[in-house]
From TrEMBL:
Pfam families: Glucodextran_N, Glyco_hydro_15. It comes from Halorubrum sodomense. One of its GO terms (biological process) is carbohydrate metabolic process. Coiled coil: none annotated. The lineage of its organism: Archaea, Methanobacteriati, Methanobacteriota, Stenosarchaea group, Halobacteria. This is Glucoamylase (Glucan-1,4-alpha-glucosidase), GH15 family.
Length: 684
């Protein structure tokens, strides 16, 4: 049965993601989005932004299912005309996605249900669609997809692509390519694999010979397709399936991907030949076998275990073939989360190893090693970046944003130390030792001459200054390096790292603990060069609680942490009707670009861990795990980046950092100790 969620009916961005856990299917990443947008009249759910071979390039965007009723003369689209919808997973361990759209229209009151899986051994997707209506009518169904196969520059919406209709073994297919990657669509209803109308159109063109398939089928609303079988440019594609007089119909849509037309076509047709139940069984078996290698939900609460397992499943889905984990399968209008942030991957690695996903944690470490800057490279601030990492990366390893963040230098050292400590594998120590040593050498060189790191960008990527969280991560990285170096017999370097970390830690509160309008608190950054309101050195910051856990630089029961937690009660910082802390008071990183009431689940996770460890609220972690977080999920049960003032999903519904912190808080609760605390700087 589909997983039930306590989430209310709210707008969100990407309620579910899907991939296979191994082989060819691991190259495919699909998202499903459920809308509740009364301003635009959208209440349906559709498949969106599907990629293959690299998860930061979409091969198609929206995949629309539409129903034409000839008797009533209307065309209904799942996204725009459904009165309500659901997106659900088959289970917490099997991310088969079911999308259910319900219509309430004269002659077409009924339900359109789609189930989708990625093939395990074939690079492709298979979608089963079932339509059931209350009345018999003459019907045609349509599939319309925006083709996103935009060449090597995936941020250029005008890059040239080509699409055409072809025939193979009695089946018609739509094929699209950018000259490198290929995809092919085909459909099957009771052995009939021909299209009843087919159009390759130009997206955004409303009329004329180049009009889009969407304009021809949905906006034209006449039940006919003006055939166009080839196009170049920015394209969409639509195909028809005439089913005659009926109140129910079922069909399959196969989508194949490949590095060549023959491969893509073969993959699409192979999936149709096998059928949905066969592909679903293989998909479910592969996921269940993977889950046998990692931890099950470790509590006696089925709902908590389900969210734990879904979070772990989501992180596995988001691990690209390059070994890195993308931050989220989420793409706002002018940017994307489909990059790899070393910072995010550090915490994801912490969660993976906590859950026993050793292979995935090792792959993440390999990504750090393979993408570290090892040449003589100077950034635009004149900083020699040898031994560091860029701010974030395309999945190919090409740098995207390039600012210096110290949590993305100290953090990978910590991740190396943690996975080595948890596995006890000295081969792992040796394999990545040079990587960690290079990063530590950079940190040692980055002292400001007064016993503190030089300025750097804060974790929220907004402020250049002496960041509280970034400095704590640098201290943790040097302490972790000292233990790695001791284990390798590199005692002199171990002492050097330990001594520098000690000096920085001694000066930590002098730089980072300030008087603010919300009370004394650990702030975003000292001496910020970037203007903000409130100023970054006069506002408390949730990232500062990472100095407690995992960086272990400030004691949870210290006066500075107690004061910062007291400030966290201010209504300017916490969601009004939900115990969810924001990044900092006055945060404008919201869908509207203005200050909104709400919070970030991952920020609340760090604050609750500080409350729990410091004893100010011994139930904070349990409350987070068993009560609060369950109210912050999408209809499919994934955690977002941000919730609104009532705790409803507001932004980026599959942020892997959020999944990771929830999983880690479950582990903290079950173990009755904070998992992954960095070394405390002692010599024992």
């Amino acid at each position: 049965m589909p997983v039930e969620s306590n989430a209310p009916s709210v707008p969100s961005d990407k309620d579910a993601i899907l991939s296979a856990p191994r082989e060819e299917g691991a190259n495919v990443l699909l998202t499903a989005n459920r809308y509740d947008d009364p301003d635009r009249g959208r209440h349906g759910a559709i498949i969106e932004e599907t990629s293959a071979f690299r998860s930061d390039i979409e091969l198609f965007y929206d995949l629309h299912a539409l129903a034409w009723n000839a008797d009533e003369g209307h065309t209904l689209d799942a996204r725009d005309d459904a009165v309500e919808s659901d997106v659900s997973y088959a289970s917490s361990k099997v991310p088969e996605i079911t999308l259910e759209n319900r219509f309430d229209e004269e002659g077409s009151t009924g339900t359109l249900t789609q189930r989708v899986v990625a093939s395990v051994d074939t690079c492709g997707l298979l979608i089963e669609t079932d339509a059931e209506f209350e009345t018999v009518a003459e019907r045609t169904f349509y599939t319309v997809a925006d083709l996103g196969i935009h060449g090597h520059d995936h941020e250029d919406p005008n890059a040239v692509q080509e699409a055409y209709v072809t025939e193979r073994d009695g089946a018609e297919l739509v094929v699209a390519t950018d000259g490198d990657r290929w995809l092919a669509f085909a459909q099957d209803r009771d052995g009939d694999r021909e299209f009843d109308g087919r159009r390759i159109g130009h997206t955004g063109v409303a009329a004329g010979p180049d009009r889009s398939a969407w304009a021809d089928i949905y906006e034209g609303n006449d039940g006919f397709v003006d055939d166009a079988e080839r196009g170049e440019g920015n394209l969409d594609a639509g195909v028809g399936l005439y089913v005659g007089e009926t109140d129910a119909a079922s069909w399959l849509t196969g989508v194949g991907f490949g590095y060549g037309e023959d491969a893509a076509v073969e993959h699409a047709l192979r999936l149709l030949d096998r059928g949905y139940e066969s592909e679903r069984e293989s998909f479910a078996t592969a996921w269940k076998e993977w889950h046998e290698t990692v931890s099950d939900g470790p509590t006696d609460d089925p709902a908590v275990n389900g969210l734990y397992e879904r979070s772990l499943t989501a992180m596995k889905c988001a691990q690209d073939g390059c070994c890195g984990v993308i931050a989220g399968a989420f793409k706002p209008s002018d940017m994307t989360y489909k990059f790899i942030w070393p910072r995010d991957q550090v915490i994801i690695t912490q969660a993976l190893i906590a859950a026993g996903a050793e292979r995935e944690a090792r792959l993440a470490l390999r990504w750090f090693d393979e993408n570290q800057i090892t040449g003589d490279v100077v950034d635009d601030r004149g900083i020699d970046r040898h031994g560091t990492w860029w701010q974030n990366y395309y999945v190919t390893g090409e740098a995207h944003w390039r600012a210096l963040q110290l949590d993305q230098v100290g953090g990978p050292i910590y991740a190396h130390w943690l996975v080595w400590r948890e596995t006890g594998d000295d081969d792992l120590l040796d394999e990545h030792y040079n990587m960690s040593r290079r990063a530590a050498e950079f940190l040692l060189s980055y002292d400001n001459g007064y016993g503190f790191p030089k300025k750097h960008q804060d974790p929220w990527e907004e402020i250049w200054g002496h960041s509280t969280e970034g400095t704590a991560a640098a201290i943790a990285g040097l302490r972790a390096m000292s233990e790695l170096a001791d284990a390798r017999g590199d005692e002199g370097f171990a002492d050097e790292c330990r001594e520098q970390a000690t000096v920085w830690a001694e000066n930590f509160e002098k730089y980072c603990f300030k008087s603010t309008p919300y009370g004394d608190a650990l702030v975003t950054a000292d001496s910020p060069e970037t203007p903000s309101d409130p100023s970054a050195d006069a506002r408390p910051d949730a990232a500062a609680f990472m100095a407690v856990w995992p960086w272990n630089v400030v004691d949870a029961d210290s006066d500075s942490v107690a004061a910062t937690l007291a400030a966290a009660a201010d209504e300017a910082w916490v969601a009004g009707d939900s115990p969810c802390l924001g990044r900092y008071p006055g945060d404008r990183y919201t869908p509207t670009g203005t200050v909104e009431d709400g919070g970030w689940p991952l920020c609340e996770a760090y604050a609750d861990t500080a409350r729990w460890l410091g004893g100010s609220d011994p139930d904070a972690v349990a409350d987070h795990v068993f009560e609060d977080a369950r109210e912050w999920t999408t209809t499919a049960g994934l955690l977002p980046e941000r919730v609104d003032g009532s705790g409803r999903v507001r932004w980026n519904s599959n942020l892997q950092w959020s999944q990771a912190t929830y999983l880690l808080l479950v582990e903290n609760h079950v173990r009755d100790e904070a998992f992954g605390l960095a070394p405390d700087g002692g010599t024992d």
